[in-house]
Amino acid sequence: MNSGDIPINHQPGEATPQEVRSPALTVSDFGLHDALWEGDQWKQLLQNLIDSGMATWKDVTALVLGHLNPSQVGTSLASSKGFKKKYGKGKTMRVVRDWMYKQSGICADCNTRLELQADHIKGREAFSDPLDADFIENMTLRCRRCNVVRRPSHEFGGLTHLTAEAALMWILLVIRPRTFRDYARMCRLYGMTMSDIRMQEAWAMAHWLARSDPPSYGIEDDEHGHYDLLLWQDGAVTRVDPGDAIPTDAGRLYKNITGTSIFGFVVQLDDGRLKFYEQPISFIPFSTYDLGSRPQGSLALHYAPPDRTAKKRTGLKWLAPRGLKLAWHAVREPEQCFQLVSTGGLFPYSLVLPEAPTLGKLLKTAVPINQGDLQVIARPT
Prior knowledge:
Layout: H1 39-51, H2 57-68, H3 73-78, H4 81-87, H5 92-102, E1 116-120, E2 139-143, H6 144-148, H7 164-175, H8 180-190, H9 196-202, H10 204-210, E3 226-232, E4 237-240, E5 250-258, E6 262-268, E7 274-280, E8 301-303, E9 316-318, E10 325-332, E11 336-342, E12 349-352, E13 361-362, E14 372-378
Antiparallel strand pairs: 1-2, 3-4, 3-5, 6-7, 6-10, 7-13, 8-9, 11-12, 11-14
């Protein structure tokens, strides 16, 4: 995933998840399925935000009032080139205003009255000249969220209840990811396709709350942490706090390893070739979150931008070794390196492996799985 190479770590003076004593938002059965929430769950979440001091009733009411105001719905149309061309200077605003007053004042798709915008019924891309789409009979009211998901640039976006702006905070405050990488993975799993920079900006809230007094958010301190690695039945590898209970569909792969260590492994592809991976422990997702109906190992994924030219949603891919045949694995410290050892055949050999990217590097050597091993040695001088 793009954010895998962007360390946005625990900073001095910030609380860790273990140091935050205030309870998380107590909304049950949330997962990443906000579209399934009922009114009582949204009410409970809002009450929790008020009780935690994140906002006041005055703040919330003022924001709702502001979003009820159809600000610039008329002027955005009246100032467009297409409408000026169609209705002429001095007459456009009157046409637009008459149209506005006759509308129902609700979103054509979801019936909300918040954040309404003027939107084309038949999009500009359907006209040889985009300006030809600008006529009053071709306009309707849609909320910002329903407007955005109809655009070609958001063809692969998640059709979820919240706008990306709101969902970024919903995921942060309700599911409470421990690392930025897990946060970005949750956003991708939710369906977001925007640049990582949006998530990095939203993650600032985690840093602010982790430095508040008392702290109300915890950011993982990988550098000083220790973790157990779990191997799931589908091949996913996740981390948990040392000694955590193991789910029935997972097994403990390593115990109490340092957060600065590196997990290395080799998988065998379907064609028999070998691929070598090195993943810092800080890169490996946690499986300590309540993701609702999704498996706990669901965050073992990485993101590649959709291929919009080919109109294929290539965004989410499993993070190795999930879905692959795991041949050998080991854990090293930064001052060490991995060595691939061939233990069979007429001519056993060992090969010091150069560092590999988190998404893997093909090995030129061929070693049968039952005649090899991955070992840790001191880095050659």
